[in-house]
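Researcher: I'm preparing a figure for a lab meeting and need a structural model of a single chain. I don't have an experimental structure, so a prediction will have to do for now. The sequence is pasted below. Please return the structure as tokens so I can convert it later.
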Amino acid sequence: MKIHVYTDIHQLFGASAMVWVHTLLAAGHDVEYIDIGMSTTAALPHVGPCDLNIIVAGIYAFERFGRLGLPAHGRHVFWLMDPLTRNSTSTHSYKAGLFDSLAPRIHAVAAIDTAMAAYLHENFQGLAVWHIPCLIAPVSIKPPPAETDRRLDVLWLGSDNPRRRHAARLFERAGIHADFAFRQVWGAERNSLRRSARIVLNVHADDSHTYFDQFRAVETWAAGSVVVAEHSDDLAQHGVLEGVHIASAPLAQLPALCRELLGDAARREAMTAAGQALLHQAFTPQVWQTGMLGVVAQAMSADA
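Model: Understood. Here is the structure written out token by token.
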């Protein structure tokens, strides 16, 4: 079977897309990786026909396909990295509208958590939905750097918004040096920054959709660093234990939590080791191969 694997931000989602490429190649499929880039208006790359398109979707892909339509050939599977919600108070709600416009031509979705799966089951009866979390190839899990090689205390990487600016001010007032990189940082620089940090923060985009950000956590654990985050209610479904794999607190208490962890290198070392062990146990394609191939088979057997 000929399969195209698409992504829109190669420097960010490329490794995730390649998890699918290697799994499908090992299963005997003819696979082509296609980076469509981050333009929301440019024409799609010219590619030949295929049986199936697997789309590792960031917001650029949603907007691009919303304007231009999905690829003309083949069936379509989306592996969604961002949450979907119709709660208009959430900054994530606009993604739901984009998905709505594409849904009639989507044959299956790989949902990264049960909340996303429940949303899809509720709003798109008949759509094949599989639970497949964020995945990482074992080769991407790097030995943690030595404490002496870490030059940053606390790091935030992500988009800018008032809530995250408020978090930066909380750390400044607490006298804790925290680097809030409110810019696009991808590829080797992103990996290097994470490895250089003693603590990598996760601050929710808004307080109405406080999901566990798997993608940021998996990247951080793989880089060999500690995750500190705001509370999420869905850690248990992923096998994530508070205080073992991740440290969390309400936003106002994050500086104090980070201060405590910065003074305890042994605890941070133990958390990093636990996080990487969890990656091998629960977040590699080897663990989820049956589900990955299952969603492909169901997409191909779904009614046109």
